[in-house]
Write a structure and sequence with these properties.
This protein is α/β, with parallel strands linked by helices and 255 residues long. The protein has 7 helices and 15 strands. The protein has 2 domains: 125 residues, ATPase, nucleotide binding domain (Nucleotidyltransferase, domain 5, 2-Layer Sandwich); 109 residues, 2-Layer Sandwich (Nucleotidyltransferase, domain 5), CATH 3.30.420.40. The strands form 4 sheets. Strands 1, 2, 3, 4, 5 and 8 form a 6-stranded mixed sheet that branches. The chain has a 5-stranded mixed sheet with strand order 11-10-9-14-15. Strands 6-7 form a two-stranded antiparallel sheet.
Length: 255
Amino acid sequence: MAQQIAFGIDIGGSGIKGAPVDLRTGEFAAERLRIPTPERSTPDAVAQVLADLVGSFDLPRKAPVGVAFPAPMDRGVVRFIANLDQSWKGVDLPELLREATGREVTAVNDADAAGVGEHRYGAAKGVDGVVLVCTLGTGIGSALIVDGVLVPNTELGHLQIDGLDAESRAADSAREREGLDFPAWAGRLQRYFETVEMLLSPDLIVVGGGVSKKHSEFLPLLDLRAPIIPAQLRNAAGIVGAAAMAASDARRKRR
C-alpha cells in the first residue's frame, strides 16, 4: 500500500523544523530538516524559509502542508505574537504560505498541533472523552480534545491561580529560573493540575515538553483523579499533529 503523506512544519523562535509524515503510522517518512529562524522573523522572511523547507523534499504533488505556529490562531489568522516579529499580528498564515509553497496549507497553534499528534498517534491514542495535553517548557501550552475533536486555542497556561499567571509559577522555565528541585516543582504542578482538573474533569492528562523525559522525577508525586502520563512523540508531536490536521482539512475540502 502506498504511503499517505502530508508535510508538517513546527515554527519556533530559534528554528523551523519540517518533515514528511506517513499518516498511517505518524512516523517521519524522511529525516527531519531544521533551518534557523531568520533573525528578523517577519512573515515574508519566514515564508521563504518554509518554501525552501518544503522544496527540499520530493513530495507527492498534492501533499498538504500543516504548520504548527507559536501563537493563538483564529481560522489561520494570527491573533497576537510573542516569540516572532510583531508584524505577524493579523496575518492570514495559510494564505501567505499557499502563495509561497503552491500547496494547500493548514495553520494551527503549536500546542494544539502537539495535542492532536499525541491523541492520534501517541500517548492518548484511542482515548475517548476529555483529553488534556500540556507542554511544560518556557510556558505551559495546552490542547483540549473532547471525543476526538480539538477545542482550539485554550491557552490554559494563562489561568490565574492564587493571583498569578499559572505558567509563571509552574512552567519548566520557572523550575530552572528558581533552582527548584523536582519535589518543590511538583507542588506547584499539583496546584496547577488540580485547578485544571476541577474546571475540566479530564479523563486523561498527557504531559509533554523536554522535561517529560524526566517524568519519573515528578509525575508520581502528583495526586489527581485523572491518570497523568508522559507524552510519547515529544519533539515530533508538533510536526506530526500539524501534518495530520492538514490531511484532515484536505479531505474535508474534497467532499
